[in-house]
Amino acid sequence: MAYEVETSVFSGPFDLLLHLILQDEVDLYEISLGGIIDAYIQEIQKMEDVNLAVATEFLLIAATLIELKSRRLLPDASDLDLEDELALWEERDLLLARLLECKTFKDASHALKALTVDADLSFPRLVGMEEQFVGLMPDLLNGITGENLHEAFLRATAPKPTLDLFHVTSAKLTVAETVEYLIEELPQMGRVTLRELTSGLVDRVEVVVYFLSVLELYKQGVIDLTQLSTFGTLTIEWVGIDQEKGLLGIDAYEG
After folding, report:
1. DSSP class of residue 75?
2. Are residues 99 and 191 in the same domain?
3. In this structure, is residue 102 part of a structural domain?
4. Count of domains observed in the chain
5. Contact 54/17 with Cβ under 8 angstroms?
6. In a domain, 82, yes or no
C-alpha cells in the first residue's frame, strides 16, 4: 500500500502522478514536491512503527522526481552532453514504466476485490439431497467391476476398421446435366417408361441420377408420371415447359 497525501487535487503520490501523466493535464516537471514531502515527514513523526516498504516506495518516487526537476536547473539542453541527455530520458522512461506497472496491479486489485464482493453474496449448499430424490438417480456403477472397465477401455482404444472404397466411383453425370438432356429428348419420345429411358445405362449411380432428374422435372410440372401399382412400371409423359414461368432452378444433390 503506497503512502497517501490528502489534498484537494490528489490522494497519494502514485495517484497524483498517474492522473497528471496519463491525462496530460500538468507537466510532470511542474509538480510541487515540497508539500508532499513535508506532509510525509509529519506523518512519519506521528508513527510509532514505520512501514519500511511504504517508506522505501515513497522515497524512491520522491528521489526520482527531485532528480528530474533538478534537470530543469541545468543549462539549455543544447549545452548538455549527449550522455546526460540520454540519461534524463532513460530516467523518465523508467519512472513512467513504474507508474504503469503500479496502475496494472491497482486495476487487478480492484478486479479481485469485485470478485470477492460477488463471492460474499453466494452461499454453498451444506445439506445433502432431499430424501425423496435420493433414489431417483440409478447407480451407474452398480455391478461394474474392474474387468468390465478394462474391457470397455480396450474397446474404446481399439483401432477402428477402415472402409474399403475401391468400388466407389465419382458420378460422371449430374442432375442438372441430365435434366437438360431429358428436356431435349423427351419431347421427341412423347411417352416412355423409366426402364426404357435407362436401358442403355450400366452404372447404377447413373440410373439414380436419371431417376432424380425425372423427379425434378415432375416437380416443376414439365412431365407427368403414371404408376398403376406399387413397384410397377413408371411411365413418363412429356407435358411441356410453361413459357411464362420457364424452368426453375435445379436442386443440388450430393452423396
Report:
1. S
2. no
3. yes
4. 2
5. no
6. yes
CA atoms within a 13 Å half-sphere pointing along the CA-CB vector of 151? 5
**What range does the domain containing 24 cover?**
13-120
CA distance 140 to 146: 14
What's the rounded Cα separation, in Å, for the pair 91 and 181? 83
- Over the stretch 171-223, which tens digit does the pLDDT of each residue have? 677 888 888 889 888 888 888 999 999 888 888 888 899 999 999 888 888 88
Q: Encode 197-209: b = buried (16+ Cβ within 10 Å), e = exposed.
A: bbeeeeeeebbbb
* Domain assignment present for 109: yes
3-class DSSP state for residue 79? helix
CATH label of the domain that carries residue 203: 1.10.10.580
Residue 41 and residue 104 in one domain? yes
Evaluate whether residue 162 is within a structural domain: no
- Consecutive H or E run containing 88: helix 82-120
pLDDT digits 0-9 by tens, 115-170: 999 988 888 877 777 777 777 777 778 888 989 999 999 999 998 888 777 666 66
| Long-range Cβ pairs for the range 124-130 (8 Å, 24+) | none
Other CB atoms within a 10 A radius of the CB of residue 78 amount to 6
Q: What are the strands of the beta sheet with 191-193, ordered from one edge?
A: 191-193, 235-238, 223-226
Tally Cβ neighbours within 10 Å of residue 36: 21
Residues 97 and 193 in one domain: no
**Dihedral angle of Cα 236, 241, 242, 243, to the nearest 10 degrees:** -170
Looking at the fold, whether 20 and 106 belong to one and the same domain comes out as yes
